[in-house]
């Protein structure tokens, strides 16, 4: 129950902040960089060790690659929402339906491995929560600050938010019906998704290869938070 509440609350909180502070792109991008440091550390310290220490670990590299490729395909629909590409009012190259489908699949797949998490506040769960906040911030800024939003019904936007908020819990629910032995496969796919998103955020934030000490500091902070979580929770 706590897992579901955290997943939904992370989306609602991010959308609320995006709706009211959506013009502050720097804030959202700093949150993304912070979450990227956290996410890549969770991926390397938590997800991949579980994948490669499983009985079938040696053959799961192809599923990690599949996760990377899947995320690249989904970004054709979302136009890069997952790693901070803002879409302003004048842009018509992204449709709410495509955005809804892309974000739903992304979050749904991330939720499947949660079905077999033994700890309520696992680093894997917190990695999803940390990443949901900046994505939802950008989503709220895009959906609720469009020029035509006041002229049309808000329900399509609310529907997109609701589906995104419920996608991971629905994935977790479906995961309960899978054989637990399939857990490494799903973790490998999600690990590929995490690796692609976090690396793109970190490398894209370094424009013209100039040193940005604030962004470096945010990455280090995100990494440090994830390492603290790694040190202070039990490992099976």
UniProtKB/TrEMBL annotation:
GO molecular function annotation: zinc ion transmembrane transporter activity
Transmembrane stretches, start-end: 27-44, 56-74, 94-112, 124-144, 156-178, 185-202, 214-232
Coiled-coil segments: none
Protein's cellular compartments: Membrane
Domain of life: Bacteria
Protein topology in the membrane: Multi-pass membrane protein
Family annotation (InterPro entries): ZIP
Main localization, broad class: membrane
Any single Gene Ontology cellular-component annotation: membrane
Keywords for this protein: Membrane, Transmembrane, Transmembrane helix
One Pfam match: Zip
PANTHER family referenced in this protein's UniProt entry, alphabetically: PROTEIN ZNTC-RELATED, ZINC/IRON TRANSPORTER
Name of the molecule in the record: Zinc transporter ZupT
């Amino acid at each position: 129950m706590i897992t579901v509440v955290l997943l939904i609350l992370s989306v609602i909180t991010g959308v609320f902040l995006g709706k009211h502070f959506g013009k502050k792109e720097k804030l959202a991008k700093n949150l993304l960089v912070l979450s990227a440091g956290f996410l890549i550390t969770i991926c390397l310290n938590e997800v991949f060790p579980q994948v490669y220490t499983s009985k079938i670990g040696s053959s799961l590299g192809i599923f990690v690659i599949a996760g990377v490729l899947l995320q690249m395909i989904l970004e054709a629909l979302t136009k890069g929402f997952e790693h901070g590409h803002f879409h302003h009012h004048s842009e018509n190259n992204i449709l709410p339906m495509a955005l809804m489908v892309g974000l739903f699949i992304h979050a749904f797949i991330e939720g499947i491995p949660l079905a077999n998490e033994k700890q309520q506040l696992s680093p894997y769960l917190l990695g999803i929560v940390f990443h949901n906040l900046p994505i939802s911030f950008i989503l709220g800024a895009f959906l609720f600050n469009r020029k035509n939003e006041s002229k049309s019904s808000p329900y399509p936007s609310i529907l997109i938010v609701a589906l995104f908020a419920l996608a991971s819990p629905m994935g977790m629910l479906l995961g309960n019906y899978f054989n637990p032995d399939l857990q490494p496969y799903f973790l490998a796919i999600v690990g590929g998704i995490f690796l692609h998103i976090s690396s793109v955020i970190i490398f894209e934030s370094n424009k013209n290869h100039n040193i940005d000490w604030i962004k470096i500091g945010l990455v280090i902070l995100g990494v440090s938070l994830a390492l603290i979580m790694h040190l202070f929770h039990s490992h099976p």
